[in-house]
Amino acid sequence: MIDKQLMELLGSDKKYIFRAVGWMLVGSCCNIGVTACLCFCIHLAIGGAAGSAYGYPLLIALGCILLRFLSTVRAGVLKDTLGRNVKKSLRAKLYAKLLVLGTGSTGSIKPAGLTQLATEGIEQMDLYYSSYLPQFFYAMLTPVILFIICVSINWKVAVVLLLCVPLIPVSIVAVSKFAKKIFAKYWGKYTSMGDVFLDSVQGLKDLKIYRADERQHVYMNESAEEFRKITMKVLVMQLASVTIMDLVAYGGAGLGITFALMGAAGGENIAHALFLILIAAEFFLPLRAFGSAFHVAMNGASAGRTMMELLKAEEPVWGEKIPEQTELALQDVSFSYDGQRQALQYVSMKFADKGMTALVGESGCGKTTVAKLITGIIRAGEGKVLLGGTELAQYDRAAYYGRLAYVSFENHLFHDTVRENFLLANPDATDEEMRQALKQVRLLSLIEEKGGLDAIVSEDAENFSGGQKQRLALAINLTKKKAIYLFDEATGNIDTESEDIIMEVIRELSRSACVIVISHRLANVVKADRIYFMVSGEVKETGTHEELMKADKGYAALFRTQKELEEGYLMLAKTGKPDGADKENAAGEPVEADKKSAVNEEMTDTDVAGKEEQA
User: Is the pLDDT of residue 375 over 80?
Assistant: First the structure.
């Protein structure tokens, strides 16, 4: 019923649980005192005692009532303090862990799941700690105290009540074995539905473009229906459990009352019998309340186990050495994401402390994996990632990141002013430095038109075009000089003008820093000092653009193919006809008609063959 691992998360806040339980027990004793005073007054009334005899019992009862009020308030304050401390502590631990793990290192927990864990999950854990645990200890101790008091009055009634009490925990344990599976599935379905919802909202534009919104709507409904079904199972389980506990509680209390009445009929003191009757329910009410809290706490326990899994995730190891050099290198590095297919196979690369080094190749060749190794997001399975001849893991992470700038096509701009976005990267940046960086990427006039540095960047930077967004992200990185710049498809999916501006800035940076460019478009890396051409996780060719074109292998073939495609697109954009559409064949005849006939979906193969014979 108590998860020791979840208790470890509390740390020094455990004291609030025991203090709260102490005050709850004081309140229970006050209830017993008030009941005893009431029964004593009835006893005095039956005996015909004078009015002055009621003074002390009533005064004691009043004192118990006041102390009961105080204990209830104190217990509530302590639970509230515990809950606030737990939420603050857990969110701090979660945030600190995510900072240590870095991006992309949260295992099976997706962004939507993390959001739910940090919000709803921690709220449920608050209930586990501030409601469930204090009630558990209180419910276990109260029957013992009552038994000690009642056994001196009527041991038979006390024994009967005490023997009935364990039936409630037994029923809870019996239900919990089934409940753990239900609640584990419940939390899984809950986070899964959140993932589907987040994906659908983020990709709503694409769903509309591809007219797939109706299909996604059906998928979301299916996910919601699965969650509804598991919720109904939880409610059925809770109702069955509560019914069993009520039968045990009221049945046990009724049995105790029966024995008390039998004792009174046998000539025992009526006041004693009345006390036992009134106090019988107190044996079971704390456990009954605990049973109700148990079902609420199961959600918190499920979220807590997910939290523990994340907090115990293996952290990347970093050292304390301060980097002084910027010469990066990969030495016989191999890496696999799934332990089966190799994303990199014995890759060796060198990146000079000044100049531009490019990684090129078709999608899936391993370029981004190299970028992740350089940024420390992942670690090499075999081989070494070196900085100045020393393994990257031996350096202080903050110091290393202080020398590294990473710009990709996924850079996020926050919904805030342009100035605040700059200050995130460099808190010491002046307005003049920001304007200079904007001028360098040719965005200053646009930003001034929008309101200057106080202009608001809308959510997901939707008030900027794709190219402007990339240039603004680059400008933000320019306000703080770095020794290493890593551009991972920084010119992907943007207009030609923005691409040319960004590449101009990159070439300027390469004169004084180590610049690494990852690009699908080979025209962007023609002026690179060194090019690594990758195929299926291996470096197949290395050299300058001229050397690789002279070798006339994979790189040269890909470069010519891209160039032909780009020239064809440019011709199509200018004339509306593909490049070469009006050229003549060897016989001096136009080939346009043949090309049209070859792509005409209405012509048969026989028609095409006939025209070729005529030609």
Answer: yes
CA angle 396, 401, 404 (to 5 degrees): 135
Structure tokens that stand for 164 in this block: 């009935």
Q: How far is CA 457 from CA 414, 433, 438, in A?
A: 7, 19, 14
What residues pair up with 358 in beta bridges, in sequence order? Answer: 517, 531
User: End-to-end CA distance of the chain, in Å?
Assistant: 88
The pLDDT of residue 490? 77
With beta carbons less than 8 A apart as the criterion, state whether 457 and 416 touch: yes
Please provide the DSSP assignment of 58-101 as one string. HHHHHHHHHHHHHHHHHHHHHHHHHHHHHHHHHHHHHHHHHHHH
- Which residues on adjacent β-strands are paired with residue 456? 417
Please give the DSSP secondary-structure letter assigned to residue 458.
P
Q: In angstroms, what CA-CA distances link 308 with 39, 96, 159?
A: 51, 14, 42
455-505 tens-digit pLDDT: 888 877 888 887 888 888 888 888 888 889 998 887 776 777 888 888 888
- Beta strands of 114-204 (E only): which ranges? none
Backbone phi and psi for residue 493, each to the nearest 5 degrees, phi listed first: 60, 40
Residue given tokens 């540095």 in the structure block: 453
pTM, to two decimals: 0.64
Give strand ranges (E) for 93-208.
none
- The alpha carbon of 453 is separated from its chain's Cα centroid by a whole number of angstroms, namely 32
Q: Where are the alpha helices (DSSP H) in 152-212?
A: 155-164, 167-202, 204-209
Q: Which amino acid is at 606?
A: T
d(CA 353, CA 515): 8
Residues 6+ apart with CB under 8 A from 496: none
pLDDT tens digit sequence for 212-232:
888 888 888 888 888 888 888
* Adjacent-strand bridge partners of 384: 331
In whole angstroms, what is the distance from residue 159 CA to residue 151 CA? 7
Give the integer Cα–Cα distance in Å for 526 and 506. Answer: 13
